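Supplementary Methods. Inverse-folding protocol.

Structures were first reduced to a discrete structure-token string of length 162. This string, shown here, constituted the complete conditioning input.
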């Protein structure tokens, strides 16, 4: 059932990156197939990650180029409400790719319990630097719209784009 949303979701996220950086490469990787372009963006000392992605992979994976460096993007999508295990799954993918941009997207609004848990466990959505973190949001499929960014949209955080 998730499969039908991958294309519209990818397009919505792609449009946001295009507005900020002018180019982005995103591909649907839920079937654990990665294009040569995506594989080539992985630094040679990190190619081992593909050994771990044979059994499970992000639904959408990609990158934006900044000079010779690739900032990775991972997107995990759920049709149901976001659960704690979903957060850890998305974090795992973000860690493997050392993603600067990690998104956990649901068709449902973000549960209040998850928002409160973030307050109690501040590290839940944050990573090792201010340039990395996990963003939760809702995909309103009828309008191909992204909404309810939590804790906030990375596209509004200027330090990520300068």
């Amino acid at each position: 059932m998730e499969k039908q949303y991958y294309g519209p979701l990818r397009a919505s996220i792609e449009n946001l990156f295009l507005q900020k950086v002018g180019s982005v490469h995103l591909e649907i990787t839920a079937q654990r197939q990665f294009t040569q372009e995506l594989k080539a963006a992985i630094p040679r000392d990190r190619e081992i990650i593909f050994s771990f992605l044979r059994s499970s992979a992000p639904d959408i994976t990609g990158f934006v180029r900044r000079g010779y460096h690739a900032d990775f993007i991972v997107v995990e999508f759920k049709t149901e409400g976001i659960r704690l295990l979903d957060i850890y799954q998305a974090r795992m993918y973000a860690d493997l790719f050392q993603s600067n941009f990690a998104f956990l997207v649901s068709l449902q609004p973000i549960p209040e319990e998850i928002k409160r848990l973030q307050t109690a466990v501040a590290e839940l959505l944050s990573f090792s630097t201010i340039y990395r973190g996990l963003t939760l949001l809702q995909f309103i499929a009828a309008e191909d719209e992204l909404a309810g960014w939590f804790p906030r949209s990375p596209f509004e955080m200027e330090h990520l784009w300068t």
